[in-house]
Write a structure and sequence with these properties.
Its cofactor is thiamine diphosphate. This protein is of the alpha/beta class. It contains 9 helices and 5 strands, in the order ααβααβαβααβαβα. The radius of gyration is 17 Å and the shape is globular. Bound molecules: thiamine diphosphate.
Length: 272
């Protein structure tokens, strides 16, 4: 991948992170930690990889995206706004009563959202259904999803993982945002979902392990996933919750807490 493309994406990821801070601050609520950890993966997908059309969000041939960890809606909203699905000005409406950008993504209200999520564990099932449906319709569109490592505690994920391998869904690839933390503690302590690599391999998936904040590694993993036939791919991304904001990094307290004015100002400065 050319240096220029990687740098452009890194700069977009910073802009997405700034939006996450600004919008959760404006709402005085929301989930900055798990949004910041997913920003680089979301950027690579929405600004380099996925075939999507902001002018035609329902385009039948589009690639699909499912945010399994729907509480990280701010990262998805920021990407959709930057990509032109709706004006960035709307991000200020996050979580306001009646606004289309609620705390979890709503596919009926937000242009560009392919699946309503927030109840952890259901996203992969939806992604599997989409991949099967696209195959039936003879479309060559791909399905991408991002799941949390805490989300893997939901049993439904493993039923979907089994189905995806059984049906040889090679147009389906998922990222695991392996930031090690969940709502109120380390995933390892609450209920370990590890070893993630071994588990997906045992379920018949192609598995790749990367640094989820290296744009180069993310782009390479995407290319590898696309070249694999006969199996879905799981990209286990090692990430840092709160990535990019010094006082939020690896701090469980920033799972679902919004920055106040002073904290937001510091964060935005760090993200210049
Ligand atoms: C079925 C279900 N149970 C509980 C919750 C409450 N909840 C919201 S976020 C979260 C932790 C998620 O952890 P992880 O998937 O690792 O997300 P991340 O750390 O990346 O934000 C929980 C338990 C939920 N949204 N859905």
């Amino acid at each position: 991948m050319s240096e220029a493309i990687t740098q452009r994406l890194e700069s977009t990821a910073r802009q997405i992170r700034r939006h996450i801070i600004a919008m959760t601050h404006a709402a005085s609520s929301g989930h900055p930690g798990g949004s910041l950890s997913a920003a680089d993966m979301v950027t690579a997908l929405f600004f380099k990889e996925m075939r999507i059309d902001p002018q035609n969000p329902q385009w039948p041939d589009r690639d699909r995206f499912v945010l399994g960890k729907g509480h990280a809606a701010p990262v998805l909203y920021a990407a959709l706004a930057e990509r032109g699905f709706f004006p960035a000005e709307e991000l200020k409406g996050l979580r306001q009563a009646g606004h289309f950008l609620q705390g979890h993504p709503d596919m009926k209200k937000v242009p560009g959202v392919d699946m309503s999520t927030g109840s952890l564990g259901q996203g992969l099932s939806a992604a599997v259904g989409m991949a099967l449906g696209l195959r039936l319709d003879n479309k060559d569109a791909r399905v991408w999803a991002i799941l949390g490592d805490g989300e893997l505690q939901e049993g439904q994920v493993w039923e979907a993982a089994m189905a995806a391998a059984h049906y040889k869904l090679d147009k389906l690839a998922i990222f695991i945002d392996d930031n090690g933390l969940q709502i109120d503690g380390p995933v390892k302590e609450v209920m370990s979902s590890y070893p993630i690599v071994d588990k997906f391999q045992a379920f018949g998936w192609n598995v790749i392990e990367i640094d989820g904040h290296s744009m180069t590694a993310i782009l390479e993993a995407i290319e590898t996933a696309k070249a694999v036939t006969g199996r879905p791919t799981c990209i286990v991304s090692h990430t840092v919750k709160g990535k990019g904001v010094s006082f939020m990094e690896d701090q469980v307290g920033w799972h679902g807490t919004a920055p106040n004015a002073e904290q937001a100002a510091i964060a935005l400065k760090e993200l210049q």
